[in-house]
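Late entry, written up from scratch paper. The run itself happened at the end of the previous shift, but nothing got recorded in the book at the time, so transcribing now.
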Amino acid sequence: MPVSNLTLPTGTRIGCLKVIFKLPSQVYGRVTPAWTKDPLAYVEWYAPLKPTAEDYHEMYLVKKCLSNADGLLPGQVISLSSIRQTCQLIPNFSQTALSMEWTSDSVLDRCDTFFLNCFTSKYAYQTLW
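Output as recorded:
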């Protein structure tokens, strides 16, 4: 059985993009802004990946981070240009009871563990494997 080693560059993380926005021009004024004028994104981060994929299907297990003391998931505002690519997450049905409340709109919020699907395209296979 082949052993996969994650090819993501150091510092790369998987996150759930929640919103893309741009700060209004009134924020900048006449002084040099501390904030970029480029589009920004708010991302909720998943836990760092293990260095190897799961044995049975050769996909990486992706888990939600634990909530902060205030009940929120760890998130961050980043430059939109720092997002490298999209990825497909498959709910881990073996770890969680299938809920009829899960829909394509809500499953990322309701499920806690996923598999990173590196087989969606040749590009994903080359960059996520």
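The mean pLDDT is 80.
(Scratch paper discarded after transcription.)
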